[in-house]
Amino acid sequence: MSAMQKAVLSEHLAERIGGRRVLAGVFLTYQFDPGFFELNVLPLLFDASLSHAPPIKLAQLEDSLRKVPHGIAVYYDRNGIVPESTPSRLDIKRIAVCHRTGVFHPKNVFLLVEDNKADKYGYHPQALIVTTLSANLTQSGWWSNVEVCHTEEIVENDSTRLRDSLIGFIDWLKKQTRHKTSDDHGPLQAIRDFLRQTRNLTQKSSSGVLRTHFYDGRTEVAGFLDEVAGNALQGLNLEIISPYFSERPDKLLQDLADRFALKEIRVYLPRDDSGKALCSPKVFENIRKTENVEWARLPDEYTRNGKDKKAKSRFVHAKVYRFFSLNLKKEYLFIGSVNFTASAHQRNGNAETAFFVDMLPGRRPEWMLQTDSRKPLEFAAELEDEGASTEGGTNLSLRFHWDTQKAEAFWDAPGPSPALTIQWQKDVLFSLAPLPSGEWTSLESSVAEELHRVLKSTSVLSVVEKNKDPALILVQEEGMHAKPSVLFDLTPEEILRYWSLLTPAQRAEFLNVRAPQLALTDEGSELLAKVDRLAIKNTFFDRFAGIFLAFGSLERTVREALPGNTRDAAYRLFGQKYDSLPNLLGKVIKASEEQTDDPIYSYVTFLCARQVVDALKRDHGDFFREQAKSVSDLEAQLDRCAVLRNRLSEQDAAEMPKFLDWFEPWFLRRAKQIHVEES
Q1: For residues 410 and 438, what is the distance between their CA atoms, to the nearest angstrom?
Q2: In what helix (H) or strand (E) does residue 110 lie, and over which residues does it extend?
């Protein structure tokens, strides 16, 4: 049998991460369901206990994402948003790729990670996890289909055959999407910088063992295999697993057979549970009549959906080319996104990726596929929506900046765009006049206002172009720290208590027990404990000691983030999330205006905020200068402290102003640490 291992895809990825901290993440896919990705794939990157209720889970993930210094990005085909997809809500870079000669078809995961435990020098060793797979970022890809993947890990300053090919692919991808991000592809660039520190191995093999090679889709498949393996593949057998075929697969088969003098070839015949072949009669006959080629099937253990023998079969979406010898201990796999189609195999076709791997079998391999001589009574050709069609979709990209309230549009095709209409749930939001090609165009304030309104509910809109079916578009959102949180509405006391919690587990429990009604009506709500909202008690914690502890924790967290993780610092100091400083200050001011607060409590809260901001500004001036607009908004909030001071002064107009004039400078002034001499 094959040396291929069976595993649950999500468990495999989590195991490879191994609890290490993710510094940057890049996902490549053709089909993309943003909501599924955020709720079911993204959590694999974090070693944290998450709620079963989606709103709370999203809030916890929002917090975890702040700890990723370079962020997470998803690159997907412009036509790849699945119709049943749910919207994106988190700070994920979403970048549509327009591939001119076919479709953007890679499926990859790139994760830059570091050890949680420092070495003896205080350094946290880093590594790059590179996975190539056949699964799209969709529910069927990660939960139900039969898929395939291979993972490599490159450690710091390593020598690897993968270095130059991965850097070349990253450079190609950046060039393809050079105008699509406002951060110069931060996550992708961090991964490239890591690879630049490694050394490229020029030798294709070592001690007779072929090194793993990365296929970047810029050469034809047969030529790549010949270049990296050459004589090693001569005279072997070949098994091919692919859900989709060209109308003339014999041409691809003949090229492989002649180039490598293959002995026998077996090709997986996709069938449904009724026995109907998922290909055209023409394809079936074409392969059946090709010399030394047979149709075959996968053993039930790979395809059955459960242990019950009567369980239905899963759709086989894997793409595998297995070269092996029945007489020698030789087995090589070419696995990734490459279907058995001309558009996937040729040079100027789809964008594809794969790994070529020497499996080093411990014994002589056997056939994995079993010959299938039953001629199907029915055929239902599966059109390769994910590999052949270049029609449909839209060349439009929309971008909204939450921090500046600006909206932009980008037309990614030669010549100006036609007139376009943007809809949500069949309601027209706005129309766009013809746009210039290849540049971001600022949109009117009325368009920005519409996007601001609708993006609180969804990020997936429809683009209507004359004489074409509506196409789905995923709006790119920038400045996400300034996007208001619609998931939680904590009181000032709850925000301060949340800041003071030390561990992720404590914060997760805090959010769980304070779940708002929104969370209690969503999926997973039956698993949550229903408790009354936190009562405000006149305890020692909830008074001044609690304020000091909370702001001390906030300052410590920001200092730990800077200078390396400006994302986390910006979220906490300038964001509009449920636990951000501006949100706290806004709630305190509102309570003061409604006179539902304790004036002294509110006043001290603002003084603590002023003290922390001033201290951080002194020590991290570059960061504050980079965030000039956000700093200006925060300063305007902090200036409202004068309103709180006036309320206190009104209680004793004769003495209170003089006391506050004395008190404020001493309060805001940081005490110097006293160093005690050793005796």
Answers
A1: 7
A2: strand 108-114
Tens digits of residue pLDDT in 169-178: 999 999 999 8
For residues 387 and 385, what is the distance between their CA atoms, to the nearest angstrom? 6
- The sign of the dihedral angle between the CA atoms of 438, 440, 441, 446 is positive
Are 237 and 292 contacting, i.e. CB atoms less than 8 angstroms apart?
Answer: no
Structure confidence by residue, pLDDT tens digits, 375-408: 999 998 876 554 434 446 799 999 999 989 999 9
Please give the angle made by the CA atoms of 381, 352 and 252, to the nearest 5 degrees: 55
The Cα 5–Cα 673 span in angstroms is 59
Measured CA to CA, the distance from residue 516 to residue 488 in angstroms comes to: 7
Contact 600, 504 (CB under 8 A): no
d(CA 408, CA 100): 23
HSE toward the beta carbon, residue 264, CA cutoff 13 A: 12
Residue whose C-alpha is closest to residue 605's, from 538, 666, 548: 548
Q: What is the pLDDT averaged over residues 553-580? A: 92
| Beta partners for residue 323, in sequence order | 238, 332
SS3 string, 583-597, reads: HHHHHHHHHHHCCCC
CB atoms within 10 A of CB 37: 26
Q: Is 678 exposed, middle or buried (0-12, 13-18, 19+ CB in 10 A)?
A: exposed
Q: Whose CA is closest to 136, among 8, 240, 36, 224? A: 36
**CB-CB contact of 534 with 491 (8 Å):** yes
Six token digits for residue 286: 């074409």
Give the distance from CA 414 to its chain's centroid.
29
Nearest one of 349, 319, 354 to 104, comparing CA atoms? 349
For 471-494, how does the pLDDT look when each residue is reduced to its tens digit (9 = 90+)?
999 999 999 988 887 556 678 888
**Span 37-57, pLDDT tens digits:** 999 999 999 988 888 878 888
Chain length of the chain: 679
Phi and psi at 357, nearest 5°, equal: -130, 130
CA dist list (Å): 310 to 303, 356, 438, 453, 544: 12, 36, 54, 50, 66
Q: Judging by DSSP bridges, how do beta strands 126-133 and 108-114 pair with one another?
A: antiparallel
Alpha-carbon span 484 to 89, nearest angstrom: 11
| Position 519 pLDDT exceeds 90 | no
29 is written with which tokens? Answer: 């896919």
Burial environment of residue 260 by CB neighbours within 10 A (0 to 12, 13 to 18, 19 or more): buried
pTM of the model: 0.90
Contact of 616 with 624, CB cutoff 8 Å? yes
- Residue-wise pLDDT for 498-517, tens only, equals 888 877 778 777 777 766 54
Helix pair 656-668, 641-651: axis angle to 10 deg: 140
427-432 and 476-478 beta bridge pairing:
unpaired
Contact 93, 75 (CB under 8 A): no
